[in-house]
């Protein structure tokens, strides 16, 4: 085989791997966008409760420096593809860095989000394979003549700058990190509500903070609320999947108790948002961290959560939901009619 053919083959494989990573990252950005704006869609990247790209896309880890992580991937693989094409010696350190970043993101999926995105794993495999090929063929990488890093990174960096400055933050909703600007309060039964003071549509939501799909649905419902703040009201009902007697121990309905006790300090909706970011897939959360993040009185929070009344309140919510024959989380009730999952968004689209 001639030297020219060998050079072409040496270049072809890393460029192909970078192209695969770029395409998969583009598909991930589509999933990220759809997960945030099309709440009635379950998405094509779902293979069970623990293998759901939407859960990962809606997590707090999916946006980095106000840019969706898939766009970082698109820019990164574009840069790696150009470095591979020019056989630049900078391919090796950047490919190794990308491989390390993929390993870190896999750790986030497994240990923080507790869910795996199959498309993400495709991106990770492409990244690791590219790092391996770059290391294996490192002796073929050279200092490129006439092409500088400035030339190579102009397009990828430009893409990130455009995304940061011009991309509408379609993923944004109100969070625990800031004040709640919408009207909110409690109804006659003590349930927390948010939205319109004189609503035309009232949605009673029944959710469990440990449920990843509840987190997905809640993000979608909050975005609808931001669109119709003068006509839609959401009333929250905690739906613990188990009874909550004090004898069951400190883990019994711990999420519902934390939210209610934060509500006693005037921070229920911040706690609601915080819990949906930190609790899905977990048995408990760090109440001290919650107190710091939510700017609560930690001693009062701890005392409240340990109080018998806190258990009774959470247990009452559980029993009330059971009496109403609401057993699935998330569930929604509008004018006495129950809706599951994405059906509530179709109903709201017809009413608002």
Key phrases:
6-stranded mixed sheet; two-stranded antiparallel sheet; 56% helix; single chain; elongated; alpha+beta; 2 domains; de novo design (two linked rop proteins); 9% strand; Glutaredoxin; 352 residues
Protein architecture, described:
Helix 1 runs antiparallel to helix 5 and helix 3 packs antiparallel against helix 6 (149-166). The protein has a six-stranded mixed β-sheet. With 352 residues, it is α+β, with helices and mostly antiparallel strands. The longest helix is centred in the first third of the chain and has 35 residues, at 3-37. Helix content is 56%, strand content 9%. It has two domains: 3-166, Up-down Bundle (de novo design (two linked rop proteins)); 184-351, Glutaredoxin.
Detail the topology: elements first, then pairings:
Blueprint: H1 3-37, H2 53-57, E1 63-64, E2 67-68, H3 69-85, H4 91-113, H5 118-136, H6 149-166, E3 184-186, E4 192-195, E5 201-207, H7 212-227, E6 232-238, H8 254-264, H9 268-278, H10 287-294, H11 298-306, H12 308-323, E7 331-334, E8 337-340, H13 343-351
Helix pairs in contact: 1-3, 1-5, 3-4, 3-6, 4-5, 8-9, 8-11, 8-12
Q: Provide the low-confidence segments as ranges.
A: none
Quote the CATH topology of the largest domain. Answer: Glutaredoxin
Give the number of DSSP strands: 8
CATH homology superfamily name of the largest domain:
Glutaredoxin
Termini separation comes to 68 Å
Fraction in beta strands: 5-15%
Radius of gyration, whole Å: 24 Å
In quaternary terms, these chains amount to single chain
Q: In DSSP terms, counting alpha (H) and pi (I) runs of 4 or more, how many helices?
A: 13
Helical fraction equals 55-70%
Largest sheet: 6 strands, mixed
Shape: elongated
